[in-house]
Design brief:
Layout lengths: L5 H19 L40 E9 L2 E12 L6 E3 L3 H7 L11 E2 L4 E2 L8 E5 L4 E5 L24 E15 L4 E15 L2 E13 L4 E16 L4 E9 L9 E9 L15 E5 L3 E7 L2 E8 L2 E5 L8 E8 L5 E8 L11 E10 L11 E9 L4 E10 L2 E11 L5 E11 L10 E14 L4 E11 L6 H10 L6 E13 L4 E12 L5 E14 L2 E15 L2 E14 L3 E10 L3 E10 L4 E10 L2 E11 L3 E10 L3 E15 L2 E5 L8 E5 L7 E3 L5 E2 L5 E4 L7 E6 L8 E3 L3 E5 L5 E5 L2 E3 L1 E8 L11 E3 L5 E4 L5 E7 L4 E6 L2 E7 L12 E4 L1 E2 L16
Parallel strand pairs: 1-7, 39-46, 48-54
Antiparallel strand pairs: 1-2, 2-3, 4-5, 6-7, 8-9, 8-37, 9-10, 10-11, 11-12, 12-13, 13-20, 14-17, 15-16, 15-18, 18-19, 20-21, 21-22, 22-23, 23-24, 24-25, 25-26, 26-27, 27-28, 28-29, 29-30, 30-31, 31-32, 32-33, 33-34, 34-35, 35-36, 36-37, 37-38, 39-42, 40-41, 40-43, 43-45, 44-47, 48-51, 49-50, ...
């Protein structure tokens, strides 16, 4: 899409009318010939013989050259691509050149590549080598349509591309940060100042991502001044798409579905569910059956269709249901002969269930370590797996082995259909060389049970997650390391579980949530946490969606008890504001606070609050600004007769590559990002999911809210473009691997606008329909009657060329001073290129 100002739109409209009349009045010289002859007698221009119809003289003909077009493969629209058109070998027809890069974007199965044939010196795919395929361009819609039978294509979804299309990005360095400064003045005028910061530095080289986390702090008050800085973690990783896994090196924490976490330095290899299509991640039920004919299988829930699938006659299996599905599913099989069979599938989800036929694994080798990079304990190896043995059963287990600590676990998960989902596992651990007076070694077992069930009829859900009972001699690896480091007091857990219940009353617009957590020990008092929340949405007078919620809690920890409750009321106020009341009550104090929040636009928001507590009046305010180079947050607080505070924080990053450098906002420190180039044009607004980001003075910007392994859509906000900028392609799509620095370039034209009259060496005008191209090969104008042309995006002294009959014919140079009024015509001589030396042509290369 191109942004066009009103005067240019008027000029373009006149040209379109002339071309439209011309095309409507054309006739075929010979019905069996491809050539088209145009009736120019009705065209209202003076030189009717001097018209360049080379692009329209054949049906569907596109003049050879380079075009930026959207790529549409079957029903899936992809990002814009530069596409070259060449005359085919028979010298009668121009065809799009499907380069190896474009073929990769199409997403053919790798096994087909050896069967493909190529033309134009082996640069362009012969589309006929894929029987049933076609490629056709349409300049009117700016699209290259490629149709390929599905049998040749890799699996894909609307938001996910196969691994062959994943982009590892470009090499570069990054530095992301969060920094804050705060000044606090206590009663009595004592002042304390502090500055803190943390973030991630990194290097990308090919598929490898190297990262280092840092943190620092500076404190200054009347009694002390203290500075601290440290690198807290060094690590690296790369994706292994062929096996849907991730390889990591360095300092990590054990992420396990079976064992408790601890820090280590070493190497790990694990399947990464993020690499799978969204509807194949995690656990979901498998639907199987038998179709008597070619049939359509419809899966629905409470009347909402979830998926429709065509199956052939015979047994079928549906394995790509979304992992978030739970409860009762309705399955309908519609046969070709009109017969219908229906049945129900009940399911629930717990973390230890794996899709039928899939295997998930994690392998680790290294040594335990701490945040000071100190090794603790001997080398160890760890492995775990989960196997979807059948439609309802999952088998999982794992082991940790070292000279001093060993553990072995085995578990079973079962989808109980209408009765929920259940998993059970047991772990046996052996610990040696303990610094205990009573024993230097011990062993014990631990059992764990998890259950989940959703009740569709009552719209409620219950889970009994992670009930664990451990013998007195059982220690996790983390408990063992702490006991070795600090002595007794670790590994004494006895019972631990969490129970939750969630109830929705949609007709009453109410919800209830209950959570209870229990932890008991062999040698000290129990811990218990209880929370109950009730929420209600309602309307009052002209106000809609008022929210009222109440939360009660009780915490018992080491024989101490904390009881209290929260009360919250929130209602919309104005077009974009929100007014709320929050009350907190416990045995020692009660506070009341009224707040007003307003989002000015997608970049600015603020909140002001005032309240009353037992210790006096309180007040606070904060303001957040999403800038192009950082996110800035300013806050202030006050409590009468106690303190006042003032603080500011900034969050952002810097990314540097061979393609350019930019400061920017960040979403995840050290995470995936996209460096965008707008051909040197500054102030171009770019948008993904959040607030837009404008390019810097060098025409560069980094967008940080990019998802890994998802197809991300980045676009230019056409309505917010600077007045002197125009763009021919405003959307691009990329699927980036985790931590990648992607790179993309938009073709943006920037500069002045002017009307001009072109004249050739002998005083005649270039033909009607000729194209003016700047030094960057961007089309900036089309020649009209008597050589008149509207030029956009021009610079003083710029050298350009004019093309017709499929090639560059003459060169022109703009004056060093352009008129202030673009309606004042420029007279521009266009010197024939055939008579010019390369220096005379200003270094312009001519494609003959």
């Amino acid at each position: 899409m191109t942004k066009i100002d009103p005067l240019k739109r008027h000029s373009v409209r006149l040209g379109n009318i002339v071309f439209g009349i011309t095309l409507l009045c054309c006739y075929f010289k010979n019905a069996n010939a491809d050539e088209i002859e145009f009736n120019t007698s009705i065209v209202d221009i003076q030189d009717k013989e001097n018209i360049d119809f080379s692009r329209f003289s054949r049906a569907g003909y596109i003049m050879p050259g380079s075009y930026t077009l959207k790529l549409r493969v079957n029903d899936s629209e992809m990002s814009e691509q530069p596409v070259d058109w060449f005359i085919a070998d028979d010298d009668k027809e121009s065809k799009p050149c499907l380069t190896a890069k474009l073929v990769e974007a199409i997403g053919l199965k790798p096994a087909l590549k050896s069967d493909l044939t190529w033309w134009h010196q082996g640069e362009c795919l012969n589309i006929d080598s894929l029987p049933g395929s076609s490629a056709q361009g349409n300049l009117g819609t700016g699209t290259l349509y490629v149709n390929v039978p599905q049998i040749y294509m890799e699996y894909r979804t609307p938001d996910w591309d196969p691994p062959s299309l994943w982009d590892e990005g470009v090499s570069g360095v990054l530095f992301d940060y969060y920094a804050s400064a705060q000044s606090r003045r206590e009663k009595g005028n004592s002042t304390a100042n502090s500055v803190t910061g943390n973030g991630t530095a990194g290097v990308n080289s090919g598929p490898w991502r190297l990262r280092a986390n840092w943190q620092g702090r500076y404190d200054h008050d009347a009694d002390r001044r203290q500075t601290a800085w440290e690198w807290t973690r060094f690590y690296a990783w790369r994706a292994l798409p062929k096996i849907n896994a991730k390889l990591g090196l360095g300092e990590y924490s054990l992420y396990s579905d079976i064992f408790e976490s601890f820090s280590y330095t070493g190497v790990n290899l694990a399947t990464d569910d993020n690499m799978l299509p969204p509807n194949l991640r995690g656990y979901a039920p498998e639907i199987s059956g038998v179709a008597k004919t070619n049939a359509k299988v419809i899966v629905s829930q409470q009347g909402r269709v979830i998926q429709e699938t065509r199956v052939a006659a015979g047994p079928f299996r549906i394995q790509d249901l979304n992992e978030m599905l739970s409860g009762e599913l309705d399955v309908r099989v519609e046969e070709q002969d009109g017969a219908v069979q229906t049945f129900k599938v009940n399911t629930a989800s717990v973390p230890y269930l794996t899709r039928p036929g899939q295997v998930r694994y994690k392998l680790v080798a290294g040594r335990p370590s701490d945040f000071q990079h100190t090794m603790a304990g001997s080398a160890f190896t760890s492995g775990e797996f989960s196997w979807g043995a059948s439609n309802g059963w999952s088998l999982y287990g794992g082991a940790i082995g070292s000279k001093e600590y060993n553990a072995l676990a085995l578990g079973l998960g079962r989808d109980l259909m209408a009765f929920g989902a259940l998993s059970f596992d047991t772990t046996q651990a052996w610990s040696r060389h303990l610094p205990f007076e009573h024993a230097s070694s011990q062993s014990g077992a631990s059992w764990r049970l998890s259950y989940a069930k959703r009740f569709d009829k009552t719209d409620s859900e219950i889970s009994f997650a992670g009930y664990r009972y451990s013998e007195q001699g059982y220690m996790s690896m983390g408990d063992y390391l702490n006991a070795r480091r600090y002595g007794a007091g670790y590994g004494n857990g006895k019972e631990m579980y969490t129970a939750t219940f969630n109830q929705q009353l949609r007709d009453w617009r109410m919800s209830f949530y209950l959570n209870y957590a229990h932890q008991s020990y062999w040698d000290r008092p129990d811990n218990n946490r209880f929370t109950l929340t009730a929420a209600k949405y309602f309307n009052f007078l002209s106000m809609r969606n008022i929210s009222l919620s109440a939360t009660a809690y009780r915490n018992k920890y080491s024989n101490s008890r904390d009881d209290g409750c929260y009360l919250s009321l929130s209602l919309p106020w104005g077009n974009s504001g929100n007014l709320s009341y929050n009350g907190a009550f416990n045995r020692k104090d009660s506070t009341h606070q009224v707040s007003y929040f307003n989002s000015v636009d997608d970049r600015n928001n603020y909140q002001i609050s005032g309240g009353l507590a037992r210790n006096g009046v309180t007040g606070s305010g904060n303001y957040t600004w999403l800038g192009d180079m950082a996110q800035i947050h300013v806050n202030a607080g006050y409590q009468s007769d106690r303190y006042s505070t003032l603080g500011v924080s900034a969050q952002g990053g810097a990314t540097a590559t061979a393609q350019g450098t930019a400061l920017h906002r960040i979403s995840v420190a050290g995470g995936t990002r996209m460096l965008l180039d707008t051909t040197g044009v500054s102030g171009v607004p770019l948008k993904t999911y959040g607030a837009s980001t404008r390019t810097n003075r060098f025409g560069l910007a980094v967008v940080g809210d990019i998802s890994s392994y998802y197809r991300n859509r980045i676009s230019i906000d056409i309505n917010a473009l600077p007045d002197n900028a125009e763009v021919t392609g405003s959307v691009m799509q990329r699927t980036l691997t985790e931590g990648a620095i992607g790179y993309g370039k938009f073709d943006v034209i920037s500069g002045a606008k002017a009307m001009a009259m072109l004249r050739l060496d002998k005083g005649e005008a270039p033909p009607f329909g000729a194209v003016v191209e700047n030094s960057r090969r961007q089309h900036i104008g089309v020649v009209g009657d008597e050589g008149s042309v509207y030029l956009s995006g021009i610079q003083p002294g710029e050298k350009m060329r004019v093309l017709w009959n499929g090639k560059a014919q003459c060169s022109l140079t703009l004056p060093t001073r352009l008129p202030a009024d673009f309606m004042q015509n420029l007279f521009l001589p266009c010197r024939t290129l055939a008579g010019l030396s390369s220096s005379d042509a200003g270094g312009i290369t001519v494609n003959q």
